């Protein structure tokens, strides 16, 4: 969690100043800011289901519902890279998270797999080396939808330095913790693909300072998953598990700060 530190020295002299030094007023701690990123939008439909339904609509509905759930807890501030059916370039989504100084970034998507019997959610974090061929192909597909992301991926020196900083231990560990919390929260409630936590070089996860994950909520190539994701009650069941995972993530983060 990003935190701002500051203070001013108190002038010594007299009991009032000493009392002020001994018992400073507690600083108001700002709620964590979560940046939600509904994938695709506008001219970019994302994955297309067998019956022609677009991923971009499910991602946006899920993002708006998840924002409501997170705000309902009273524990978070929430921002969105898009809140209507518009196209937002991938590098702009990354910039939004950086500009907002987000404490967490979650990109919402639906999968499109070569075999229509495969179904379930999967969670991705950033890595220069994909965990498997499927993860690499998915990242290439997501990045390839946006010309700007190709420019970011190939740009030298200053951008290369930023990409190198993505390997910072704290951000990688926190992103991994988020992915594990999501998988644990889904277990037994939300269908998941085998080995649901994976990694690849997703352009939308390239904010070097914000823990981030990309959630594939299900497979639009599978009729059961499509039906589940288009059903409001079923989708909300998944999103409440996402909310529980985020609560768990920040609860563990607070414990780690106290332990440190």
Describe what you observe in this structure.
The chain has about 260 residues and is of the alpha/beta class. The chain has one domain: 3-Layer(aba) Sandwich (Aminopeptidase). Helix content is about 45%, strand content about 15%. The chain contains 9 helices and 6 strands, in the order H-E-H-E-H-E-E-H-H-H-H-E-E-H-H. Strand 1, helix 2 and strand 2 form a beta-alpha-beta unit. Helix 2 crosses helix 9. The longest helix has 28 residues. It is globular and about 50 Å long. About 40% of the residues are buried. The N terminus is likely disordered.
Write the layout of secondary structure elements.
Layout: H1 15-22, E1 33-38, H2 55-72, E2 77-80, H3 90-99, E3 104-111, E4 121-126, H4 133-144, H5 147-154, H6 158-165, H7 169-186, E5 192-200, E6 212-219, H8 223-230, H9 232-259
Parallel strand pairs: 1-2, 1-3, 3-6, 4-5
Antiparallel strand pairs: 4-6
Name some characteristics of this structure.
globular, 6 strands, six-stranded mixed β-sheet, 45% helix, alpha/beta, single chain, Aminopeptidase, 9 helices, 260 residues
For the secondary structure, the number of strands is 6
Principal-axes shape call: globular
Q: How many DSSP helices?
A: 9
Helix/strand order: HEHEHEEHHHHEEHH
**CATH topology group:** Aminopeptidase
Spans where pLDDT lies below 50 across 5 or more residues: 1-27, 147-156
Gyration radius (Cα, Å) is 20 Å
Considering the protein shown, what is the CATH homologous superfamily?
Zn-dependent exopeptidases
Q: Overall pLDDT, averaged?
A: 83
**Strand order in space, largest sheet:** 2-1-3-6-4-5
CATH arch. level architecture: 3-Layer(aba) Sandwich
Reported for the largest beta sheet, the result is: 6 strands, mixed
Percent of residues in helices: 40-55%
């Amino acid at each position: 969690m990003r935190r701002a530190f500051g203070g001013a020295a108190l002038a010594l002299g007299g009991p009032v100043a000493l009392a002020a030094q001994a018992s400073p007023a507690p600083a108001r701690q700002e709620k964590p800011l979560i940046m939600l990123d509904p994938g695709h939008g506008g001219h970019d439909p994302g994955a297309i289901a067998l019956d022609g339904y677009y991923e971009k609509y499910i991602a946006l509905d899920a993002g708006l519902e998840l924002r409501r759930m997170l705000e309902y807890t009273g524990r978070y501030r929430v921002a969105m890279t898009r809140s209507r059916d518009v196209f937002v370039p991938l590098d702009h989504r990354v910039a939004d998270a950086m500009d907002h100084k987000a404490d967490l970034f979650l990109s919402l998507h639906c999968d499109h797999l070569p075999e229509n019997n495969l179904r379930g959610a999967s969670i991705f974090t950033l890595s220069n080396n994909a965990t498997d061929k499927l993860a690499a192909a998915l990242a290439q597909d997501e990045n390839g939808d946006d010309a700007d992301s190709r420019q970011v991926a190939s740009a030298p020196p200053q951008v290369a330095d930023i990409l190198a900083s993505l390997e910072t231990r704290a951000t990688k560990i926190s992103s991994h913790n988020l992915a594990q919390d999501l998988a644990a929260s889904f277990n037994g409630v939300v269908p998941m693909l085998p080995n649901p936590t994976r990694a690849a070089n997703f352009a939308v996860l390239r904010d070097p300072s914000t823990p981030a994950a990309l959630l594939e909520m299900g497979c639009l190539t599978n009729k059961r998953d499509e039906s589940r994701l288009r059903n409001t009650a079923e989708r909300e069941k998944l999103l409440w598990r996402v909310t529980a995972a985020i609560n768990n993530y920040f609860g563990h983060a607070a414990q780690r700060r106290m332990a440190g």
